[in-house]
Amino acid sequence: MASKFEDQFSMNFMLPEHVEVLIQMKEDQKHVEKPVLEDDELTEFCYLITDSRQYDYEVNVSWRKSTKGDRGVIETAWGWVDKFDQVLQ
User: Fold this and answer.
1) Contact status, residue 76 vs residue 62, Cβ threshold 8 Å
2) What is the DSSP string of the chain?
3) Residue 68 vs residue 80, higher pLDDT
């Protein structure tokens, strides 16, 4: 069990403004920078998409959604690739 000094939210003498700042700081830690992808990673993505389309493989897709300037959160989804637009990629 964590002591009261280690758990910041269990202290009863904190002002509501301080609690809001602590919550905001905890939310900001979830934000990540935009990743830099190498050519071999992009090639691997293309193979995964092509295999999913041809053989009905399930794929898990993660993407970064910008929320605060150059920082964002990671969202994920799964499914099968039915078709893709080669012109717009």
Assistant:
1) yes
2) ---TTT-GGG-TT--HHHHHHHHHHHHHTT-EEPPPPPHHHHHHHHHHHHHHHHH---EEEEEEEEEETTEEEEEEEEE------TTT-
3) 80
70 half-sphere exposure, CB direction, 13 A CA radius: 4
Tell me how far apart the alpha carbons of residues 79 and 56 are, in angstroms, rounded to a whole number: 9
Distance of CA 53 to CAs 74, 78, 85, Å? Answer: 24, 13, 12
**What is the pTM for the complete model shown?**
0.56
Residue 65's Cβ-count burial label (10 Å; 0-12, 13-18, 19+) is exposed
